[in-house]
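Subject: Protein record for review, amino acid sequence with backbone structure tokens
Concerning: The relation between a protein's sequence and the shape of its backbone.
How to read it: Take the token row as a discrete description of the fold.
Enclosed: The protein record, placed directly beneath this head.
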Amino acid sequence: MNLLLNTYRRPGSIGLLDAGQWDLLVRQARHANLLGRLFLRLQAAGVEDRIPERPHNHLLSGAVMAGEQRHAIRREARYLQEALEPAGIPVILLKGAAYVAAELPAAQGRLFSDVDILLPRARLADAESALQLKGWVSTATDAYDQRYYRQWMHELPAMRHVFRGSALDVHHTILPPTSRLKPDASLLMDASVELGKDLPGIRTLSLPDLILHSACHLFHEGEPNNLLRDLTDLDLLLRHLARDDAAWDELLERAGLLQLDAPLRLALRYCHSLLETPLPSHVQTRTGCLLGGDWVQRLRDAMYARVLRPQHPSTADALTPLARRALYIRAHWLRMPPQLLAYHLAHKAIFPARQDTHPLSTEKIELATGEKKAA
């Protein structure tokens, strides 16, 4: 029973929920990292007064935590700018941090595990040195993992600040260089937007590029835990874009220029089918995002129907474990050519990751409140 998705789409339906369903709704929202966003959605729909006291406390706490993290993200952005500006390296924020800095609707109620930035590949060494001088250190202690990230991936090994505990991902592009899709990162950087206001010198990707990056991340991700949250990000970004009719054409043109038509098509398809994101008819026609498709598309629909939901036992069926495994395999297949993929998976099978007890290598991220958040 996908109570979360039903309630998210139809906030007015909460008056029909009994105590057991409220308990389940809160559990599903927590598993999806959507407690705060669900609260704000119910509040905006004018039905907050219909939420029973105990569920209200849980939902409100999620919104409060998200608000505290927003302040922490803005502070981290300033720290990054102070670290990189002397080296002449611009700070271009990605994903959740960009939503917060640009004050986009997708920042509402969102929880964060880290800050993501984009910079030129030629400046990676300079940036890493500058960040280390300000207290950020790599969390990858395994030699193979260091090589894996530096040689084949689109980012450095994750970094963490030694005092604040904040996590940082430094990207030089938005998909691995070994990926079948190879968007030109220089086009993303050239189109980035300076924020000004109270974050001078800090930039984000343009709105169309933020949407395309979010689509890439969602549909190249092998872990299902945050996929529904990321889909709601896309829904909010697309609804924000839709305020300007001409912006749709710009989005489609950017997708073609960056060779990201495929992930955008999937994003539009599942945002519309699951979250009822409105799409202009010409966008549907040009992308073919709502067409029935062949057996591959039907298989993909069946897989995403099971992973684009809270990863809670109450939403699973007999095929859900298979769908999760298929998602994992698909993500790796898109990231690497067959020989490299076979080598990587064989290495991980023979030398499984050790449980690192180093305080900078925990699986949970701490921002602002000191409480642990889902990565």
User: Anything to note?
Assistant: The chain has one domain: 3-373. The mean pLDDT is 90.
